[in-house]
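Thread title: Can someone regenerate the structure for this chain?

I was given the following input by a collaborator and told the matching structure tokens would be attached. They weren't. Posting the sequence so someone can regenerate them.
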Amino acid sequence: MLLSYQFFQYALLGAVLTSVLCAVMGTFMVTRRTVIASGGMAHASLGGVGLGAYCGFSPLLGAALFAVASGFGIKWLEHRGRVRSDSAIAILWTFGMAVGILLAYLTPGFMTDLPAYLFGDILSITPLGLLSLGALTAIVLLLYAWQGRTWVFVACDAHFARTQGLPVAFIEALLTVLTALTIVCCLQVAGIVMVVSLLSVPQTTAALFARTFRAIVWLSAAFSFAGCLGGLLLSYYADVPAGATIILVAITIYAICRLTKSGAKAIKKHYQSS
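Best answer:
Regenerated them for you:
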């Protein structure tokens, strides 16, 4: 039985933690309209992966440092450097990837490990990876339970929140750091190239049926886990990469839900007009 294998048990636990973590942080990202910026942070983190490999420390630690730095760098270029948001993202996105590829090339033997960081491999997730993922998920859930309403207020209308005396700059900085750490902790699931899908596709699917922030969070967690589970099973039985199948299943779920809802609306409209 598949569940008797330890690697699959680890992967399943990783899928649960990833689904909950990405549900919370991804909903904030979608609400704040920073999905593309998060994609830039994810790709820029490759620079940290290469730096870690070249200098001899953990590539994931390097990825975290680069992701956080790029998140703040995008904001700095927008507000202080007077650079358009899309241009700022493109600058740091390509800078991080260029640095990462160059340093990976200069590190003997590391190019063979690079695909795992680029595309993910949840079936090889380690106990240490699960511990990091679980710790960050617990921290995010505690912060969400404590300050969730304030975060939602800032995410929906930062300008109005500022007039109400809320610490908007601090909250946005905290969300940037948590987003960067979420991206790094989820690299083993979908990799640098596709991790942003875990932070946007299930949330977009959930928004088809839910209207409140909390409902979107928990419904997107369910859709995310369904995508992870379906992708894991497809990956195992078809012997194909897990990261890609997880994203394809998640997008397929979105497409089915979108078509179902559109069809239901069309049928309802037809009966109302007849």
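The domain at 2-195 is CATH 1.10.3470.10 (ABC transporter involved in vitamin B12 uptake, BtuC).
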